[in-house]
Amino acid sequence: MLAAPINPSDINMIQGNYGLLPELPAVGGNEGVAQVVAVGSNVTRLKPGDWVIPANAGLGTWRTEAVFSEEALIQVPSDIPLQSAATLGVNPCTAYRMLMDFEQLQPGDSVIQNASNSGVGQAVIQIAAALGLRTINVVRDRPDIQKLSDRLKSLGAEHVITEEELRRPEMKNFFKDMPQPRLALNCVGGKSSTELLRQLARGGTMVTYGGMAKQPVVASVSLLIFKDLKLRGFWLSQWKKDHSPDQFKELILTLCDLIRRGQLTAPACSQVPLQDYQSALEASMKPFVSSKQILTM
Known about the structure:
Blueprint: E1 3-5, H1 8-15, E2 34-35, E3 51-54, E4 73-76, H2 82-86, H3 91-101, E5 110-113, H4 119-130, E6 134-139, H5 145-155, E7 159-162, H6 163-167, H7 171-174, E8 183-186, H8 190-199, E9 205-208, H9 221-227, E10 230-233, H10 236-242, H11 245-260, E11 269-273, H12 277-284, E12 292-296
Parallel strand pairs: 5-6, 5-8, 6-7, 8-9, 9-10, 11-12
Antiparallel strand pairs: 1-12, 2-3, 3-4
Helix pairs in contact: 3-4
InterPro entries: ADH-like_C, ADH-like_N, ER, GroES-like_sf, Mito_Enoyl-ACP_Reductase, NAD(P)-bd_dom_sf
Family: Belongs to the zinc-containing alcohol dehydrogenase family. Quinone oxidoreductase subfamily.
Catalytic activity: (2E)-hexenoyl-[ACP] + NADPH + H(+) = hexanoyl-[ACP] + NADP(+); (2E)-decenoyl-[ACP] + NADPH + H(+) = decanoyl-[ACP] + NADP(+); (2E)-octenoyl-[ACP] + NADPH + H(+) = octanoyl-[ACP] + NADP(+); (2E)-hexadecenoyl-[ACP] + NADPH + H(+) = hexadecanoyl-[ACP] + NADP(+)
């Protein structure tokens, strides 16, 4: 293993409240990048020196070495940055599929999302910009809000607003200069998701892919009746079950092209040596974290 991030879903899996749980004893970590050092005589697709990432969750990436079957791994190009390769298999894939699979968006259309400074949020901003889509990015208010806003705008965010600003009546005027979003991406739940729904255009879709507030999604009856909004869910592990390994590989290569063109960078990262994993785990669970912890081997 070369590097492996700590994602919220990794923590959920350890806590036992994730949709996929490995048999115990197990190694933590669902994502990362490794370099092949040796292959068995029946291996045909991989060779020593290749960079690989897990094909599916639950492989256990927080370790220095492992022996895996060829089917459990997908080769990725080694000419992309290490941090990009280590964080390629989960967040950018989720962002890309949510932007492509739920609404037929055209350049100039807008998308609204919460948790915009998360790993998925940062990928949504960049992939949307590459597709010519405009983004309204909602974040929690915090002491360094201007710094965060500037950083997200440098990635391609058109608007960065706080949860409180989203609730204000003046938001009605906001859409005079911008089409109402047809797609909302929800990683929080609770009041935050209700506010996203209120901003959607008639017939629009809200896709939920996380629940950081640990509160249910509440949709008012009037929004469902008079705006005919759709509530959907997305889980990358299920998408992989519904599609072939080749289709996942195609998705990875599409994202690698964006990385090479400079249109998709890794999220803000803090590299931590594997032996300091406890401090990395603690840091990853603190509120208002804008930097992803990456374990380096």
